[in-house]
Amino acid sequence: MMLERTIAWVDDTPYKGYVKLIDQTKLPLEFAMIDVKTCDRMAQAIKVMEIRGAPAIGAAASMGMALAAIEFKGSSKQDLIKALEQAKKTLDSTRPTAVNLFWGTKRILDKAKQLDLAPKEIVKELIAEAKLVAEEDVEKNRSIGKHGGTLLNDGDTVLTHCNAGALACVGYGTALGVIRGAIEAGKKIKVISDETRPRLQGATLTCWELKQDNIPVTQIADNEAGLLMRLGKIQKIVVGADRITSDAVFNKIGTYQVAIMANYHKVPFYVAAPVSTLDFEKKMKDVEIEQRDEWEVKTIFKKVQISPDGVPALNYAFDPTPMELVTAIVTEDGVFTPKQLLKRYPFKK
Ligand code: MRU
Question: How much is the pTM?
């Protein structure tokens, strides 16, 4: 059984509702849902990574904007727009690297600005728009799966890094969507999941969701990937992305070294992401890479300390992989080499 929705809007009426999301900080040991009823609570959920993964954050951000609209108490459209601009600031300040966050808040703010209606009716339309963002995410991922599935051969073992699955999206997944697409086309695929230090999304989330779907998955420590490529045990690599600039793919820290090893061993390195992840206005040097708290590196989930007190840790959460290391990128529209991608989406500049 595939996990249906990581995040979903629950309607009270067409004018009021709230959000239910899977608490990803508790997996794999506990499956718990959180009800999110305010914009501030949504910002907190994104910040502490109860919800994470670029496309899921995009959907969460647009639903956070819809919650802010519901919370609005004034009576003019102008004041509603001001409240939404403030909500956008709050949500945008939670995490800096995944571009889908800013895309999600902008989409709802732009929609509000376009509507020539009374505030109450605008709220209703914004709720509908946020729900649409979520539905579209699943459709796009299914398309990514169809296109990307053609890149995998029957019998392939595929390495993935971090979690770019249903949990990182509203459903189905981007990188794991490619794997699901190949399996739905009748191919036998095995997955190797880098555990992905320091937050271990590969071990805790990718392994969990693939196990739910009975897709064969083996966990490895991050530093085993090179040996497995040398031994010929990995035929393809598929990862997701948090932002794709004109010259690089930003993804979870460690992706860059996987890409270098893939290049050395001539293993195809594929990236799967929706068009909302493209940001060709920027180059890799322009993107802020999130730096997270030391405890993530110095401890195992704050439970076991693994280095002496007083030794500092560096904790960059993402890295850019230069385009020359990328074999192809899969979007909802097809499979593209890096050069073809820039030509296909000129409006992303
Ligand atoms: O820090 P996270 O967990 O929000 O990181 C995002 C990711 O899961 C990955 O980088 C992922 O591979 C791309 S998002 C589908």
Answer: 0.96
